[in-house]
Design a protein that fits this description.
- There is one protein chain.
- It is built from 16 helices and 24 strands.
- A 5-stranded mixed beta sheet has the order 3-2-1-5-15, with helices on both faces. A 5-stranded mixed beta sheet has the order 18-19-17-16-22.
- Helices cover 39% and strands 21% of the residues.
- The protein has 2 domains: 240 residues, ATPase, nucleotide binding domain (Nucleotidyltransferase, domain 5); 216 residues, ATPase, nucleotide binding domain (Nucleotidyltransferase, domain 5).
- With 499 residues, the chain is α+β, with helices and mostly antiparallel strands.
Length: 499
């Protein structure tokens, strides 16, 4: 029977799986939607059992039961950094606290920054502490949920939970660990145990491995639950955006991925480790590689928001926006409808739509939302370039590439071309590639994903977008104090409603 590689990714709104041959040919795929819990403003959670593990089991059983060949290796990725505390038996003690869209631990961010020093944290971990960091989230649990903390023995991200359930091994990949600031030392490529002893005393930290490293084999119990044969090797996997970047062939210095989805993420392979406070500097998926990363908390989610308000189908709104000239007749959007992530890292920023008149309609609004997220992309890419890592090649992936309009807007706003690969199935495809490398079935230099299309910016829109971008860059500092005041009102209202 043919060797097959199973990749599964656990995302924000759904989990996806793929079966691929060692040459990259896709045999089958599966998807499971799941809920994102937003129990309070600034909180974002997943149920580790009912979402992470249940989705993996369901997808694995479907794909393993197809009879198209034998599963020879498995790779897993997921949203991150996330924090799921578990007890000594590996049972989840509370819902997982998700990545930077969850801002509950800002007091812990400030305290840890003061304790260890902003410059020292940046130099050692590569990233300033923000709502993205896992260390403050763990400290939040320790402070605010002492009963949970007293029973916590380990913590998991999505990939490490699945690995432990499949193999019995407690292990985390270096890239995911490098987003556990301030618990990881980038230069040593190891846990910063001295700082960890202060932040999470008594918590067992997982063994570290590179993403394509085999870390265990499926046990009898893991096989019985998932349908994956006993003894199949499992690689360490990683966080979803980095698996998706790999799937699109982003692996050499200057290669940059734009991941179009509910949120948007940017990953660039860097020449060397050079910390930049406005970005995330992290380990790559392979030993010896480092990356810059940037993230938008609201991008595709903005269009979902508008669709739900106006009650129209996406296809209609896209057509109306495509028929609207560049610049949306003088509208500029600050896309901070959720927490503002890189490069400003302001959890109290808020969204804005400037320039509205009675002449503006749905198409103008939809286009302006896309242009606002594109301005955020341009801002992040300019910060990368200023840090000495100007993107050399942009590759677009994710569900947001399908309409064609969003990617076109981003190329026009940034003035940069983008490549769209043949396969945009996502991180699960990169997981399968990592599994194949770890099992020795895929050569280290293999590239599965060929380019399918090349988008070139329209020079006729450059003057319009340059002018609107200048307004965009001025808008946040001009409205910051007012936005912070409104954020305080919103937080007080939410607290009163909860009480």
């Amino acid at each position: 029977m043919d060797d097959l590689l199973l990749g599964v990714d656990i995302g924000t709104a759904s989990s996806k799986g793929v079966l691929a041959r060692p040459d990259g040919t896709i045999v089958a795929s599966a998807q499971r939607p799941h809920p994102l819990s937003l129990p309070r403003p600034g909180w974002a959670e997943h149920d580790g059992e009912a979402v992470w593990w249940a989705d993996f089991v369901s997808i694995a059983r479907e794909l393993a039961g197809l009879g198209e060949g034998r599963i020879a290796a498995v790779g897993v990725s997921g949203i991150g950094p996330a924090v799921l505390p578990v007890d000594g038996a590996g049972r989840a003690l509370r819902p997982a606290i998700l990545y930077g869209i969850d801002t509950r631990a800002m007091a812990e961010v400030e305290e840890q920054t003061a304790r260890f020093g902003a410059d020292e944290i940046l130099a050692r971990g590569g990233t300033a502490l923000t709502s993205q960091a896992a260390g403050p989230k763990l400290a939040w649990i320790r402070r605010n949920e002492p009963d949970v903390w007293s029973r916590t023995r380990r913590f998991h991200m999505a990939n490490s939970l699945v690995i432990e359930r499949l193999t019995g091994e407690y292990v985390l990949d270096h890239h995911s660990a490098s987003q556990c600031d301030p618990l990881y030392d980038m230069r040593a490529a190891a846990w910063a145990t001295d700082w960890a002893d202060e932040v999470v005393p008594g918590l067992a930290l997982p063994r570290l491995a590179w993403s394509d490293e085999v870390v265990g084999r499926v046990t009898v119990a893991g096989a019985a639950e998932t349908g994956i044969p006993e003894g199949v090797p499992i690689v360490a996997g990683t966080i979803d955006a980095w698996a998706e970047a790999l799937s699109a062939g982003v692996r050499d210095p200057g290669d940059t991925m734009l991941m179009y989805g509910t949120t948007m993420f940017i990953v660039e392979i860097a020449e060397a480790f050079r910390p930049e406070a406005s970005l995330w500097s992290t380990q790559g998926v392979f030993e010896g590689t480092v990356t810059y990363a940037a993230g938008l908390s609201t991008s595709g989610g903005l269009t979902v928001w508008l669709r739900d308000i106006v009650g129209r189908e996406f296809a209609d709104l896209i057509d109306e926006a495509a028929a609207t000239p560049a610049g949306a007749a003088g509208l500029v959007v600050l896309p901070y409808f959720g927490v503002a992530r890189s490069p400003i890292f302001d959890p109290h920023a808020r969204g804005a739509i400037l320039g509205l008149t009675l002449a503006h309609g749905r198409g103008h609004l939809f286009r302006a939302l896309l242009e606002g997220s594109a301005c955020d992309v341009r801002h992040n890419l300019e910060v990368m370039a200023a840090a000495g890592a100007a993107p050399a090649r942009l590759t677009a992936v994710g569900g947001g590439t399908k309409s064609g309009l969003w990617t076109r807007v981003v190329s026009d706003v940034t003035g940069l071309p983008q490549t769209i690969p043949v396969v945009t199935i996502g991180a699960s495809y990169g997981d399968a590639l990592m599994a194949g490398r770890g099992a020795g079935l895929v050569s280290p230099g293999a590239r599965w994903n060929a380019p399918a299309d090349q988008l070139e910016p329209d020079p006729g829109t450059a003057a319009t977008y340059d002018a609107l971008y200048r307004v965009y860059r001025d808008l946040y500092p001009a409205t910051r104090d007012a936005a912070h005041a409104l954020a305080r009102v919103q937080e007080a209202t939410a607290a009163a409603d909860a009480g």
